[in-house]
Design a protein that fits this description.
The protein is an alpha+beta fold. Helix content is about 45%, strand content about 20%. It folds into 3 domains: about 90 residues, Homing endonucleases (Endonuclease I-creI); about 90 residues, Roll (Endonuclease I-creI), CATH 3.10.28.10; about 60 residues. The chain is built from 11 helices and 10 strands.
């Protein structure tokens, strides 16, 4: 695959997320200026079309409302209409048949557009509190999300599709292994999203130092002898009055954190 196809893969991912093909124009916009500038630069690089980024002030009173940066082009439509998701197959053939980098760059563009990192505490019925870390991307187009799920699977990233509000659906990546692989192989251009992903990954490491070698050794023996996953191990430990967070158990059984009798290694 050529560098041009790699750049086009990212551009289409961004346009499929925050863009639209209508009235023989391509419209694109987002609240992150660096993201819109990246897209404008790619358009210039690929098609020699220089576009002006316009700013829409969303609110002068509410600081939570952010400015919106947008661009549109008839010339770009002529170049990319063959990739219009409304009139052709969901994903272009060069992306479906592309190498890992092409697939990753398409996903990167789409997640820059529609992705977010959700880290929050959830209280269970038994009073315990769990921290969930979810990486999601949203769309009303379920078929497109199914294609993205397959691309993620090709990159060894497990995900599932869930129903959101109304007609909205989302692809969700939820465990450390998936988040880490996404971070290493895909990542975000948008810095606030990349920082959120880094913080989610770092929050796993913050809980690894609370347990001694004997507890760690017990978990590994359960894993080896019973051949069970983190959730079942957690339930067995609760019967012994050991309430160990599931992410900690995952870090131990998957070898991301190792504890010896003398020290811990992350």
């Amino acid at each position: 695959m050529s560098v041009k196809q790699e750049r086009l893969a990212y551009l289409l991912g961004a346009l499929y997320g925050d863009g639209s093909f209508s009235s023989k124009r391509i419209f694109f916009g987002a609240t992150d200026k660096e993201f819109v500038q990246k897209v404008a630069n790619l358009i210039d690089d690929l098609f020699r079309i220089k576009l002006k980024i316009r700013v829409q002030k969303l609110s002068l009173k509410n600081p939570k409302w952010r400015d919106y940066y947008k661009l549109n082009s008839k010339k770009l439509y002529k170049h990319l209409n063959k990739y219009n998701p409304k009139t052709v197959e969901i994903l272009p053939k060069f992306i479906k048949d592309g190498n890992s980098k092409v697939k990753a760059l398409f996903i990167k563009g789409f997640f820059d557009a529609e992705g977010n990192v959700d880290v929050r505490s959830v209280k269970r019925k038994d009073g315990r509190t769990d921290i969930i870390r979810h990486l999601k991307c949203f769309s009303n187009n379920v078929e497109l999300l199914q294609e993205i799920k397959q691309l993620l699977y090709f990159l060894n990233i497990k995900s599932e599709i869930f129903r959101g509000k109304g007609k909205n659906y989302y692809v969700c990546i939820w465990n450390y292994k998936g988040l880490q692989k996404f971070n290493t192989n895909i990542g975000f251009i948008i810095q606030r999203k990349q920082r959120a992903l880094n913080n989610a990954l770092n929050s796993y490491k913050e809980i690894q130092t609370r347990w001694d070698f004997q507890t760690y050794d017990m978990v590994l023996k359960l894993r080896k002898q019973k051949k069970i996953g983190a959730e079942k191990i957690k339930r067995k430990l609760l019967k012994k009055n050991l309430n160990i967070p599931k992410p900690t158990i995952e870090a131990w059984i998957y070898g991301r954190t190792k504890i010896t009798a003398n020290k811990m290694e992350v």
